[in-house]
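Reopening: Glutathione ABC transporter permease still failing for me.
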Amino acid sequence: MARFLIRRTLRAIIVLAVVVTAVFFVFRMAPGDPARLVAGLGASEEAVAAVRAEMGLDRPLVSQYVSYVQGLFHMDLGRSVLYGKDIAAVIAEHVPRTLGLAAAALGLALLIGLPAGIASAVWPGSVIDQVAAAGTVALLSIPNFWLGLLLISLFAVQLHWLPAGGSGSAWALVLPAVAVAARLAAVFARTARSAMLDVLGQDYIRTAVAKGIASRRVVLRHGLRNALIPVVTVVGLQLGYLLGGSVVVETLFSYSGLGFLLINAVGVRDYAVVQALTLVYVAAFLAINLLVDLAYAAIDPRIQYQ
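Support: Ran it again with your exact input. Result attached.
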């Protein structure tokens, strides 16, 4: 296990270095002058030059890159021109909101998707199975931004039950969480159904049923544990979707999380913020992949990493 963790850590460092380098040079070589965007289209040349110096864009490209990497080694992500303060502080303000949205959406999706998928597998062809199948297809077909617009129109504009946007209260979290969770619930339901059907067809399950063991015990004690392995894989992959997909939903609902911060930073070419957020997102993806691999070993002791 120690060797496995060391290899994964070294691989993660290499991936982070490549991604950070690529993002740095791509944004620096993109057309347009970010200093003018920040200063304003009507700003004088002197004002634009001052902003350019503040952003460090007046130095050679290689010098900018070396300074940025040195700052990373000292845990210095730089200073945001848009917000006028350290980027670490800016990200720290937005992280709890994105984590709250991700946790709420994931919890809701698991609460709905797993029972629906398991019930569909236990009673295939039943009304429950048909309703779950129709709901899964419908939810997978609806883009989250369109679902978000429907939720805003119904619950905020027409019924006035929930706020249409913002992040100032717990109620503001409801509609974004539902918009993100809908597709996840459909994916979890489909995966759980397929995995459970496969497990219930195994010889050891038929043997347990033949011995007269209660069906509930067969499903929960013998079947569910093995069926969870592919489900864990999908959950891990969808955690990445939670981070990436939340960008659209946060923007739609004006929910001040990392996705909302990223869109604003890209809009004004706040390079340092975009680079820092890229680092955060990639590190999160790598950490999620590692946790999924470790979860395999916890669920199935036969899986061992060398």
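The mean pLDDT is 81. If you still see a failure, please send the error message rather than a screenshot.
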